[in-house]
Amino acid sequence: MFTLYETLRGKHLNGQPLAEYPGKDERLASIHDHLVRLLNARQGVLSHLPDYGLPDLNLFYQDLPYSEADMAVSVKSIIEKYEPRLRQVQVSPLPRDIQFAVVRMEISGWVVGGDRVRFKTYFKSTGEAEVLQAIG
Question: Which residue in 26, 47, 73, 91 has the fewest CB atoms around it within 10 Å?
Fold first, then answer.
């Protein structure tokens, strides 16, 4: 199952065309693409979905390292609400990269009707979230 955005565009975020019948790889690519959009969106930007996306990351960065757990809870709750293809979502902070001001987290869960997946995610001080491809 593809997201509405992918269906309208006819391709994945990386530009690859959608398969007519999505398989496991296409499903994981679609979940990845949606996580990239979801974690890079900020709450309040969409008037019809005011809680879509993360709160302002600057608030979390100001209170580091104490706010990592709060950030993980926010990421988990937003994924549980807006990515229904993932179940039993867990978000675990990884050691920070102090030199480059990057907060690292691992997002894991079960794809509905599929396998367990993990996404390494980097939250940069610029506010950008980089989600790496799924690890099965």
Answer: 47
